[in-house]
Every structure is written in structure tokens, then in C-alpha cells.
Amino acid sequence: MTMLEVRALVIHRTNIPVVRGVSLIARAGEISVLLGANGAGKTTLLEGISGVAPVADGEVLLENVNLSREGAGTRSRAGLAHVEQGRTVFGSMTTEENLLVGQRDDAALDQIYDLFPELLARRDIQSRMLSGGEQQMVVIGRALAGRPKVLLIDEMSAGLAPVVVSRLMKGVRRLADQGLAVVLVEQFAHLALEIGDRAYVMRRGRVVYEGDCASLRNDPARLHHLYLGDLNDAGVDVV
Fold first, then answer.
1. Which of 2, 64, 138, 173 is 20 to 30 A away from residue 166, measured at CA?
2. Residue 218's CATH number
3. How many domains would you assign to the chain?
4. What is the pLDDT of residue 8?
């Protein structure tokens, strides 16, 4: 079931088009992986979907409801959660207090601890004392506490050790297996493609590839070409 549909989204930064007519879908129970080099427009796209950045054109639909002109708060209450870059936690608050900020019902906290048992052992520790990986778990958990239908995750692996990234990836895969729709922006393409279902590659603000993750994972030369090669040679219309 399609939970999120983005149609021909256009987003400007200081009057310069950064996202140029991007369309994508996120289905319940699946991870849509969004890849691309730095500056491709991935973060801006997520910000446009969640309402953090204004949209110049196009549509954002959640369960066929058009939220394109709604603010970030309305989109969040409708079931669209955005985990932004930076692992922003409330440092003076405990792990559990951070999670309770977004809690909608009592069962949500138990489910977060089930997903990330590492946090249960650290529930009474001030979040500024947590490791980077634990802080990322807190930020994801806080988003989950609101019972979202779609989870947007932007570069959760930044600055983390590979073993920690692998642990987080397994957690995200489990969320999708439980029925959540996930859109994952990730710099470690090979790890994201291992857990993902559908892949999109952005370049110069456009989607230049859409297909299943397995096909792209098994063709690293094609992935490299999509990132760095001459896309006109591949028959892609690049402006």
C-alpha cells in the first residue's frame, strides 16, 4: 500500500532550483532508499516533503491526502515523521524524557525499548552523556513515539562507526517489516541497498534512477556511473 506519494516536487533555495520535478513513492512495509552525491538535493527533498522547506511546485500526498500546502506541524500530526541530520537531543534531559516528548500513547515507549534495548539500560542517563549511536537511537525513537505512518531519515550514519551503522540499519529494516513506510537518505550506499526495497538516485536535483535495490546493489559500476558518470551517455535528460 502506498503511504507517501511525491509528485513532481520543485524546491528552490535563494531562488535557485535545488529539487527539480522529483517524484517518488514509499509503501507500507518497505524502505525507499534515496542516494546521490553531496549537493544532489536529497536533504532539501526531505525537508520539502516534511514541510521544513517551502515547495515551489508539485504535491506531497499522505494516504492520498494532499498536504502540499500544510505546515510541518500538520504533516507531523497526520503521520509524517522527519529525522533530520545532526542527532539533536535535549542534552539536559534523560533518555526517557527525550522519548516522552513525542509520545502519543503508553505502548509507544515499550516498543521503542524493544527496538533499541540499549536505550532501556540508559533510560535515566542524561542524553548528552550518550554515545553518538545511542543519541541517534534516541532521535529515531522520539520520532517513533508519535506513531508515524511514514518515517523520513536523513543521513543517520554520519560520523558513526560501521558497526554502529550496521546496528541502526537492522533497526530500520525491522521497522519496515513491522509495517512502517521508510524513506532513507544514506551516504553508505551499499549498506542502504542491502536493507532497502526501492532505490532512487538523485543528481543535480533530479531522479536519474528508479528501481529495485537488489539490481543496483549487484551492479556497482552502474551505481558509480549514476553518481559520477556522463548521464547523457546513459540516455538521461539532464538540465
1. 2
2. 3.40.50.300
3. 2
4. 98
Range of the domain at 12: 2-79+149-228
What mean pLDDT, rounded, does the chain reach? 92
Q: Using one digit for the tens of pLDDT, what is the confidence trace for 56-98?
A: 999 999 999 999 999 999 999 999 999 998 878 998 999 999 9
Q: How many CB atoms are located within 10 Å of the residue 140 CB? A: 24
Cell 505502548 sits on residue: 107
- Which phi-psi region, left, alpha or beta, contains residue 23 (left: φ > 0; alpha: ψ -120 to 50)? beta
Integer Cα distance of 145 and 12 in angstroms: 31
Query: Which of 179, 236, 176, 178 is closest to 202 using CA atoms?
Result: 236
202 contacts 36 by C-beta, under 8 angstroms:
yes
- At position 223, the amino acid (one-letter code) is L
Looking at residue 165, its pLDDT comes to 94
Which single residue is written with the C-alpha cell 533555495? 13
Answer with the one of 121, 147, 173 that is the final residue of a domain: 147
Whether 32 is covered by a domain: the verdict is yes
